[in-house]
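Bug: token stream looks shifted between consecutive jobs. Job 1:
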Amino acid sequence: MTETTRQANGRSDQKKTARGKSAGLTIERVFTTEGAHPYDQVTWERRDVVQTNWKTGEAVFEQKNVEFPDFWSVNASTIVTTKYFRGALGTPAREQGLRQLIDRVVKTYAKAGEDFGYFATEKDAEVFEHELTWMLLHQYFSFNSPVWFNVGTQSPQQVSACFILSVDDSMDSILNWYKEEGFIFKGGSGAGLNLSRIRSSKELLSSGGTASGPVSFMRGADASAGTIKSGGATRRAAKMVVLDVDHPDIEEFIETKAREEDKIRALRDAGFDMDLGGRDITSVQYQNANNSVRVTDEFMRAVENGTEFGLRARTDNSVIETVDARTLFQKMAKAAWECADPGIQYDDTINDWHTNPETGRITASNPCSEYMSLDNSSCNLASLNLLKFLRDDDTFDAELFAKAVELIITAMDISICFADFPTESIGQTTRDYRQLGIGYANLGALLMATGHGYDSDGGRALAAAITSLMTGTSYRRSAELAAVVGPYEGYARNADAHKRVMRKHQAANDSLRTVGSLDATVHKLATQAWDQVVKLGETNGYRNAQASVLAPTGTIGFMMDCDTTGIEPDFSLVKFKKLVGGGSMQIVNQTIPRALRKLGYANETAEAIIEYIAEKGHVIDAPGLKPEHYEVFDTAMGQRAIKPMGHVRMMAAAQPFLSGAISKTVNLPETATVEEIADVYLQGWKLGLKALAVYRDNCKVGQPLSDGKAGDGKGGKVVEETPKQIEYRPIRKRLPKTRPSRTTSFSVGGAEGYMTSGSYPDDGLGEVFLKLGKQGSTLAGVMDAFSIAVSIGLQYGVPLETFVQKFTNLKFEPAGLTDDPDVRMAQSIMDYIFRRLALDYLSFDERSELGIYTATERARQVETGSYLPDDSDDEVSEAQALRSDAGDTVDTDSELRPEKSAAVRAAPITAHTTAELMEAISGTSVDAPLCFICGTKMRPSGSCYVCEGCGSTSGCS
């Protein structure tokens, strides 16, 4: 966009500001403290970020000495550094830390808010800046990726991730569609559109010839998307193509990708590389888009009743063909069974909740199906991290959540004032209607932490209440903003419709039935919010035509260190963690110990359950776990995978409280039938969803690591071999003949002895021998036997931390004073021995979690309030160089390390993501593509895929 156009847009917004009725917003401090900048209240550290392609071993990125808070995980800092830092690597212009990134964005927002009259005083602008900075710094929320890419740079200030285009029945419009879509793909975003205005292949042109039909034009758009992707875009081009169910070419549209899947199978069986990203996959068509059929209530009732349905000409709307509705619906389900396309969008439901019907109907969505609004429009997104609002007493801080929503919605609306757009028509519509998309992530983790099953009445009630509070608070702030800077430009002509939709949201909130005190508290606050929405809207109108969606939150979910994305349940109970020094480990989810405490399990029982999960990857037959609690730990995949309708019911619980829709795919097992998919589509309509997509495991050939290769060659079900179940056992790692060791003499309560500890050449502890009492005595024999048991445990991979946790604080005689300056008092010999081993072999951060410090560290804490020395970065760096007894780098990032009760073990060397880790544990494959950037296995995120290695997504986030 030219500078002249940008200035004109600014003048237009300033005129809107002049129509405001009040002096501006007063921003109160909620998260920050007067006189203290948020940056000064956290501890910062320097890290080296190196990213490697796991397939080729090639280093794809390296930036050293970047600055992040010490509580940010390695994964979060890696993804932010590689994806969001601006400036050429190796130059002074390159951003070197999180402070620069947050300042670049937040200061731009604060200045724009002040310039466009959002704040009452300069002081309010400063408080707004500090509050926004604090929440981003502490991972309470994140803007969508384009904000981090573009805001505050010399690039166009594009803030939107979601776009909807339009195309008419003319060659000029079709060619313009190719052009506009290409520019959006070039910027790394995605777009969707409805092709139903294009006349069908069963209609005539004005010249008398037969029209090509929309499906033929999809080929050109698909080739364009594939070319731009392969030309160096940051991720695959994401696009959505929609066709109305009454279009005469609907059957061809439905079967398009299924026929291509047959072609892929035939080529694969002939020896061609047809995996997603394979060199031969480009020979097939329509692989760069998600397809969806837009169905009406009339059609769905015809399906229920088994009656006929008319397909209508695009030129005069006359019925040119009649089909059996149920048969057409079955063809949709069969195609989805074969290749996961098409999805379904429920047209009448979508437009019944439309706030701007006088301007035009909603005909399409963005590629991930959460943004549904006017043609030629865009939406900027932001998502909150729900787990951050869970208090220590396991109650949800609804008041704090609402305050955060108010601030974020304000920032999102401000961004439209200075934003640039890929086309003038998109820019004009967005400025006139100011569509926003606030949402959340970590719902699955929140439900587990509070003891709720994902597919349970309590889980759905809590999700619904939180969603209602989020959208109600957003529209309340939107009405308050309208009083300050005026309602959106298109509000006047749509006022009655907008207020009607607000009343529909309020009525849905009133009909919500709470299950427990947790969701009841949230619902009460949501009810107050919706009351104010309706009252303020009558007086002020609204600043935004749309407020909320539930997006996939792929990359930004990693930025916030979320365990789960969007509205999704937990992917698995065991997670893959990358370590500071470049190694990795597998760890039982941090949420599980908290959930077990919430459910009332004793520490000993909880530890046994966690150890079982670490080994098996599921909770079935876990020792001490009650069967009625299994549902709390149900996940997206694995032995206790959530049933398909469980996903649908959760979507239905949240949908009435969203302006837009939900990005989510309903996963079905490979054994699912066509009839089951048809039922999911039917139930989605009955439950009031706006859109729905399904995926049956192994239905697509273009997914690596599927075991079966044989098909029937006729488009039917591919016959897959049953994956081999692999049993994993620990392997003893013996010490070499010559190894380093140290001998320590000690005295505990007057009893003297010696300890000899031997280690592997890479410094991992491998054996311990204790000498206590006279040779041949019972005490000496017991100590010898104990030493052998501990040594064998270490050599089989039991972490030293586990021994330290179990044997410190044991109390028996002899006990008392010791001759060790670092351990002045010991409750027993065992207590002393394992404290000494911790001091000798564990890193500072690991000892800190166990409360074990040297005399020097304790003295420093008394003097400075911190156990760390001034040159703590160097000390942490040295600690990172240590090797664990299993040979992997020890993680010194306190956020990465699990709680004391969480099981940690070395990750299999073949695993580079949680998806691959689950494959190694369960022996079954995860049906997902490999990342184009780093080569690791991706995992589902909404209706897209996300890479845990580098944060790349297959959609628009």
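Job 2, same session, no restart:
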Amino acid sequence: MTETVGSPAGAAGEPDSGARTKGIRVQRVYTTEGVHPYDEVSWERRDVVMTNWRDGSVNFEQRGVEFPDSWSLNAVNIVTSKYFRGAQGTAQRESSLRQLIDRVVKTYVRAGVEHDYFATDADAEVFEHELTWMLLHQVFSFNSPVWFNVGTSSRQQVSACFILSVDDTMESILDWYKEEGLIFKGGSGAGLNLSRIRSSKELLSSGGTASGPVSFMRGADASAGTIKSGGATRRAAKMVILDVDHPDVEEFIETKSKEERKIRALRDAGFDVDLGGADMASVQYQNANNSIRVNDEFMRAVESDGRFGLRARTDGSVVETVQARDVFRKMAKAAWDSADPGIQYDGTINDWHTAPESGRISASNPCSEYMHLDNSSCNLASLNLMKFLRSDLTFDAELFEKAVELVITAMDISISFADFPTEAIGETTRKYRQLGIGYANLGALLMATGHAYDSDGGRALSAAITSLMTGTAYKRSAELAGAVGPYEGYARNADAHQRVMRKHAAANDLVRTYHRNDVAVHKLATKVWQDGLEIGARNGWRNAQASLLAPTGTIGLMMDCDTTGVEPDLALVKFKKLVGGGSMQIVNQTVPRALKALGYQEEQIEAIVEYIAEHGHVVDAPGLRPEHYEVFDCAMGERSIAPMGHVRMMAAVQPFLSGAISKTVNMPEAASVSDVEEIYFEGWRLGLKALAIYRDNCKVGQPLSAGKGDKSSSEKEVEKQIEYRPVRKRLPKKRPSQTVSFTVGGAEGYLHAGSYPDDGLGEIFVKLGKQGSTLAGVMDAFSMSISVGLQYGIPLEFYVSKFQNLRFEPAGMTDDPDVRMAGSVLDYLFRRLALDYLPYEKRAQLGIFTSDERTAQTADYGSGSTSGGEVDLDTMRSTVESSVSDSRRDEDDRGAGSSTELLELRLGKAADAPLCMTCGTKMRPSGSCYLCEGCGSTSGCS
């Protein structure tokens, strides 16, 4: 999307209808003049019925919603339940994606026209169509508050991330409680630094001893827990930070680890300490993420084993001198115990600060990706990187650049009409116009292009893409400054802002490229930074901040992303929900693309995918070269990515982000305190802004805590390692059966099918061709292999999905009214078996219906009715992928309700993840939070 800023109206042959003195010109990228984006897609009606996976109760139901047929069931469910506005069951309730997109996009366009963003009315219309097309095709998404609020009668809150401030007065502390509560009520989160509050080692003006910040944390924690339990479906998201030189730093470090010991004692005494358990209310500090803000002086003292001074809040004098390494080790030990505190690197954060004359950056939002001035907010949007991967597996850098230009323009427009929870936050945000453009699906993109996540090539491509994104965002920000003016606080911060822009550009020059993909992206990024610096020097910039990497939880599901934020893939085998109920396991569709990028042939790809479906990993996959194993390394499972691999990826992209990165470095249970120290130290050395770790099974307050506490060896609970093997269930001597005669393309034959007494297919025999012929022998052998597979538990629907539509002679007309045409004998046989032995719901998923059912479809097509026993067209939709799940799924695998639970079954051990409070499904990691694949709920990040 190439746009010219500040051009006089009517120049360069552009239409002059509704011309303005200045503004941006918008050229079409995705859309066609005269064709509305809605007219380019195929729409369909679906029923959304969401249930609690644990007890089957219905959580949400809305029938007849309208979406493009390319949208997955999960994306439809989440958008319908989360983002459609209006009371259910009323005419005011939104029922189409068109209504949702129009509600948001038209609000943005009206605000853009009102505030003179566009040179002409024609440019405004093109902008509307381009934005609509990108949202319709899942190219990007705004953060959740935009979908909740924009265009409704509610307050137009567009920001998901907030930073508050608190001073050393009781009035300010009480205001903190109130402001946090208002933000939690709106479904967002906030962070703040408590370091201005004097320590418990200092005196009050009245002569008494101060309580210290940790004591006030108790009140804020209780408030957050109460607001959450007042009807919210997710925990209150909050961050509390303390500077490392605060005299109460050691008490703050140990708050969570001490509570974790309390939880263990309660558990051993028989109390309910699962997440959300009845007895967890007595445990404190569980509603916040804790972080220590370390400075370079402290980290150098750790490096040299020196001493460090803790300073009074009132006059800055040294209250106590401590050994820096002792404090650092306490931080690592507490994080090893309870995953808190995380660490934030103050020196790096403020060295990249664009507005230091307006105040230091002292805090972050709850997930640590937004870092800027106190009492400020940031609205986010994320691009789906897989939408820019061409068919030849190269990254379309030019298209990505144009998409970023359009999205960042829309994000800036939103500040013009946005509402804020407090006037102080609104004033700061309008003055500095902080934005947070980011991306999702990086892990999928790297795998699809044949890059290992933990590799030089993978990091180079990631760095180049991130540099291009931020460079383009700031270039567009400079262009917008020329059209509608720089941010209000720019004048006093101009030198600092330009210095940070030069730092970004210099970091871009240091990127080392390895492959045609990252070479092309990096070349364009270099040009964009050069152009952006020139335009910015002339115009200034519209935004003090432009980019960050958020968890992209719910919006990642809305865009049908395989991976969130900067994360690698969770595992190679995932869960997929099916229309009409149920789910299936599938091999990630990124895997075949990765194998193609690595040069494998179609036959090899199919064999490797089949192996992954059965085993869940690539080790010893047939034909896969060991040097390619690393491409398929994931966050969990066999060959999981090493903790330092996550840190190195963060370090590769951090120099190209205005803000920081929401990500937790997962560590194995066997990791030591020294390992945590190494991660925290390397984060500082490599230039990160923030870092958090999570050691497997370090927290007890989860649904799958380990056994009881220390007991005698005879009493200790031992985790059983169970190896699941298929067991053959033979048919009884006497069993029900049926025989069907058939004709396919003139060839006659017989199908004999034997069943278990409880009505499950157990064997087939096919008579085709003369006895003794090659064809007859092959069919006998084929029948025996299918029969044995059925008796070992391979589902019939697996065979049907494999053999239906198989084409070879004889083929053509049949004498079966339910299967009029067949591509081959096997195509006919398995369609007939499906009709005779599979329930309607499974046949609907496979697209196999009787003649009566097809007639009913035709009769109901116009009305879409599903009542009175009529056929439900939405249920009939086939969503079965060509790459089906594990052919040896046993009953335990079928009991999984999410990708995390499936992974647990594969690994034979539990994963530390909470159950969704809405639908009961086990959540999966997303940045520093958790995401529910079932309903889109998150544990704190929009």
